[in-house]
Design a protein that fits this description.
The chain is of the alpha/beta class. It is 31% helix and 17% strand. The protein folds into two domains: 105 residues, Rossmann fold; 185 residues, Rossmann fold. The longest helix has 19 residues.
Length: 314
């Protein structure tokens, strides 16, 4: 019985070493190296090549090495076995750090001071809004969205959230579905996207959505932070809104095409911050520990945790 690691773009050896230490009785095999397909009971995947998981007759479960599972559902030949994703405090904490960092950068006007420093310009217009006067709207109130909301509230921001199904969360204004969208956007100065990529969310951050954001807020216009998935956003619409001045700035960790192509205008845009899809990286120590515990649960006849619903796509 073996665990197959099927990943692209990450350091597979770090994961192999970590899983081998955690599961000493389970051989760890790597996609691309020779292995017996009948021996594979478990797969840990990050963007495995399409079709590479078919023909594994004893497969019992597939583990996403990230919180998102769109990379799995992109495979039209994905075996029909239970799929579990990452829900882990290490990853969640990393994402909240990213969200709080970039909300604070906008609150404290840091991009502007970075530009002033390059110009050796000492300008202070004495306009520093309080966090309580800045309205953050989080799209996606799941594991990541709710933790980010809690931490933004500790910093004093006025936080609301939007999700697919209605929610009641202490101290948080909540909105849901297409009915709640207009009111949610209309009270948002900093829009944070922590949505999964599904057929319903693809292309959601477009010209229409951006036009609905609050224009009269204390930051002088709205900002966007997208750390969900790149295909949620229409990059041409973001650039157009920045150029029209209806969007003041954007921090993007994820892109329609990754790595972000050299010719993308986002790279050099003065109002755009680009990070290389690492808002919340999966750290092998923490995430292999989570998956090894899941495998031990299955081996002990206990149910898998954090199972995703293929019909919802997340
Ligand atoms: P969860 O599944 O816990 O939460 C997803 C949230 O999105 C839920 O609140 C859900 O609503 C909401 N949602 C889903 N579809 C819709 C829709 N059509 N309309 C409105 N709301 C919707 O996911 P996580 O919080 O754990 O992760 C979110 C995403 O973050 C991941 O899928 C991944 O894409 C991204 N991510 C990015 C990382 C990075 O480094 N950039 C790292 C980790 C994750 P409801 O509550 O009603 O179900
Ligand atoms: C994830 C990611 O989904 O890193 O965990 O994008």
């Amino acid at each position: 019985m073996s665990l197959l690691l099927a990943m692209t773009g990450w350091h597979v050896e770090d994961w192999r070493a970590r899983f081998a230490a955690l599961l000493p009785d389970m051989p760890v095999v790597i996609l691309g190296e020779p292995f017996d397909r009948r021996s594979v009971h478990y797969v840990a995947s990050w963007k495995h090549p399409e079709g590479s998981l078919s023909g594994l007759p004893n497969l019992a479960a597939v583990f996403s090495l990230g919180a998102g599972v769109d990379h799995l559902f992109a495979d039209t030949r994905l075996p029909e076995v239970p799929i579990a994703r990452v829900v882990d405090p290490d990853l969640t904490t990393r994402m909240s750090e990213y969200v709080v960092l970039h909300c604070l950068r906008y609150l404290r006007q840091q991009p502007r001071y970075d530009r002033q420093q390059i110009d050796k310009s000492w300008e202070d217009d004495r306009n520093q809004p309080a966090a309580r006067a800045v309205r953050v709207g989080i799209m996606g109130l799941g594991e990541l969205g709710q933790d980010a909301a809690r931490k933004l509230k500790v910093m004093g921001f006025d936080v609301a959230g939007w999700s697919r199904s209605p929610k009641t969360i202490d101290g948080l204004a909540t909105f849901s579905g297409s009915d709640g969208m207009v009111d949610f956007l209309g009270r948002t100065d900093i829009l944070v996207s922590l949505l999964p990529l599904t057929p319903d969310t693809r292309g959601l951050i477009d010209a229409k959505l951006l036009a609905g954001l609050a224009q009269g807020g204390r930051l002088g216009g709205p900002f966007l932070i997208n750390a969900g998935r790149g295909r949620l956003q229409v990059e041409a619409d973001i650039l157009a809104a920045l150029e029209a001045g209806t969007l003041k700035g954007a921090t993007l960790d994820v892109f329609e095409t990754e790595p972000l192509p050299a010719e993308s205008r986002l790279w050099a845009h003065p109002a755009v911050t680009v990070t290389p899809h690492n808002a919340a990286m999966s750290e092998p120590e923490a995430i292999a520990t989570l998956i090894a515990a899941q495998i031990r649960r299955l081996e002990a006849g206990e149910p898998l945790e954090h199972v995703v619903d293929p019909a919802r796509g997340y």
